[in-house]
Amino acid sequence: MRILIGGLVALLLLFQIQLWTGKGGLPAVWQLQDAASEQRAENEQLEQRNRALEADVDDLKDGLGAIEERARDELGMIRDDEVFYQVSDE
């Protein structure tokens, strides 16, 4: 009976060592969980960027307001009836 109990304890210790240090053990699981959480965060950022791009595309398709805004911001264009003032920070 003692031999059976000793064998079971040894087997239990072997499994514990395998669980804590072996390939596919707890450290590997923790590493995979960290990688999955990092990937989820990156996916969320990319989804936000995609939503912003979709909103830009919708604005450009629907009206001239977005086109006019881009012309003003990116190209510095003004309308014929407007006066352009440039303010410097000096």
UniProtKB/TrEMBL annotation:
Superkingdom per UniProt: Bacteria
Species this protein is from: Aquisalimonas asiatica
A single GO BP: FtsZ-dependent cytokinesis
Record keywords, A-Z: Cell cycle, Cell division, Cell inner membrane, Cell membrane, Coiled coil, Membrane, Transmembrane, Transmembrane helix
Coiled coil: 29-70
The encoding gene: ftsB
The family this protein is said to belong to: Belongs to the FtsB family.
Record-linked PANTHER family: CELL DIVISION PROTEIN FTSB (PTHR37485:SF1)
NCBIfam families, alphabetized: PRK00888.1
Keyword hit for Cell membrane: yes
Entry's Gene Ontology cellular component terms: cell division site; cell septum; plasma membrane
Subcellular localization: Cell inner membrane
Primary role: Essential cell division protein. May link together the upstream cell division proteins, which are predominantly cytoplasmic, with the downstream cell division proteins, which are predominantly periplasmic.
InterPro entries xref list: Cell_div_FtsB, FtsL/DivIC
Side of membrane Cytoplasmic, spans: 1-3
Keyword Cytoplasm: no
Topological region Periplasmic: 22-90
Membrane topology reported for the UniProt record: Single-pass type II membrane protein
Cited Pfam families: DivIC
Entry protein name: Cell division protein FtsB
